[in-house]
Amino acid sequence: MIYLRFTRKPLALWRQLLVVALTGIALLLTGCASTGGPAASVTQPPKNIIIMLADGAAPTQWDFGRYSSKVLRQQPFITTDVVFRQGTVGLLVTSPSDAYVVDSAAAGSAMATGFKVNNTAVSVTPDGKSVRTVMEAAKAKGKRTGLVTTATVYDATPAAFSIHAISRRDSQGLVDQYLAFEPDVLMGGGAEYFLPEGTPGGKRKDGKNVVAAFRAKGYEVVRNTAELNAATGAKLLGLFADEDMDFEIDRDPAKEPTTAEMATAALKTFSQNSPNGFVLLVENENVDTAGHANDAASLMRALWAFDDAVKVALDFQRRSPDTLVIVTGDHETGGFSPTYALKDLSTLSSKNRFYTGDEHLRMLERITMSLNMVKEKLGKKPSGEVLDDLLAQHFPGFRLDPDLRELILKQQTRERNFSYLPQNVLGRMVARQTGYYWGTSGHTPEPVLVGAIGPGAELFRGYQDNTDFGKHLLRLIDGK
Fold this sequence. Notes:
Helices cover 42% and strands 15% of the residues. By secondary structure, the chain is an alpha/beta fold. It is globular and about 65 Å long. The N terminus is likely disordered.
């Protein structure tokens, strides 16, 4: 209680009023601070947790998804318009233990364990310790677990949230760990390390057929969209590509399901028998892959595909309000920077400038092939004729400047931080005519956004470290 004793001296009165005002502001700020961050209390932990992760996405990517969805699809972008607008919002610092810029393994490990690790390590700390992951904690609590990705299922993010390795490149060993760990749902690409050499697409050196081993443990195995939609099993293994699944712009819908279709199937599986709840990770890796390639058109469609899956998660949460839905990225990829630019180099006059707008977005919409697919079609020795045909057919309205054409045919890069060829050069072609520029072909240290809706969401508010994300998840799973 604050008492105010009035005095006849105006100056003294104003001083007392000022003290009251400042005290009130301090109390207000203290009250606001106490509602979020690590000290926030959770009255009832969630039964279910759905982690929606767009690998490589940071604030600029999310806003690009919002803008492009509004203009081209005439649809709201649920991630920004619902999750970030109505839910709890925070930022995560992304650095690993041994550098300033993180890779996906170290980023995912921090977010899954609460510990910093070195780049390329999978939930193994610098001193060689395998630290408890989110999925291990969930399984110990009797919760069901699921990992869904558009990458290989043993790629950095799904692996970091569940198992352990000194190096993310130990693909065969990671698959063996999945077989031992037995997540209830495992879906994505990467069939090659489930199958032995000598079988179509197989790369295993030990002769084992791990698909058969999963089936022997009671898993329903699905290999295409129709089989996924018809699946009824309580445990599900979905392998839809030998390597990574395709970009939306290249995807064959009969062979490869969307991120939303995989999320729907996973939630259907969990709805059958999950008395203690579940923890599900749904990752769209194509956001990151498009960033590495500097492919704005593929990025746009990857963001839409991810957002469609967020809708699925929120629909489930509305029916099951004891579910926490979290939407986030793990780091930023590509230094994505839409901007205004000069039309050409004839003059620096502002009259020669264009501002990125709807017309340039519609140019991206007309692109019908990913830059990674262009690389595949060009082969190891690019020819000018094949290049011209691909551009004419799949990049209508774009012109390839002579300096960029020379770089592609000679297989040379412009800068040391652009190492994906010819994708980064073609990305520069698109940028010069649309304003969708990129700063690198790698990752950047830009903090990533976190949005959360449901019980426990308040823990993720504010400016935090990526290890805090993991600590919060483990706390919610442990029920503390």
